Amino acid sequence: MKSVAMLYAYTIVFGFGYGSITPMIPILLADRFGRDVLGSAYGLLIFFSAGIGGSVGPMIGGIIYDRTGSYNHAWQFSIAVFILIAFLMPALKPREIKTVVQVSQDKINDYNA
């Protein structure tokens, strides 16, 4: 019975964590890179993060476990990669902020084209 309760607790925590970021990914990509390349950016992100990361990550974790007999080093490696990514994120393309005048001018240009 205790394992069923733990499973439910894990499911709730995982659901809130994954469910809260998943809808935000396209919004953040569109905000950062623009709607014109949203499909390409989202496709590349999903391919690299879910496709390659989802297939290579478990293999690396298994190799680390086989060599050390513990998952501690795998977790430490994962945390180190996350910290590296956190420091690299500010290097992304800065968000372009348009004023009301720029937006209005863009609409006029689109209408005249």
Note down, in words, how this protein is organized.
The chain is mainly α and 113 residues long. It is 81% helix and 0% strand. The chain has helices at residues 2-21, 24-33, 38-68, 72-88, 100-112. The model has no long low-confidence stretch (mean pLDDT 82).
Task: Give structural attributes.
elongated, single chain, mainly alpha, 113 residues, 0% strand
Write a brief caption for the model.
The chain is an all-alpha fold and 113 residues long. Helix content is 81%, strand content 0%.
Any idea what the shape is? elongated
Structure class:
mainly alpha
Distance between the termini: 67 Å
Main sheet characteristics: none
Number of helices: 5
Low-confidence stretches: none
Evaluate the radius of gyration: 21 Å
Helix content, binned percent: over 70%
What are the secondary-structure elements, in order, as H or E? HHHHH
Q: Beta-strand level of the residues, as a percent range?
A: under 5%
Number of strands: 0
What is the residue-mean pLDDT, rounded to a whole number? 82
Indicate the topology.
Elements: H1 2-21, H2 24-33, H3 38-68, H4 72-88, H5 100-112
Helix pairs in contact: 3-4
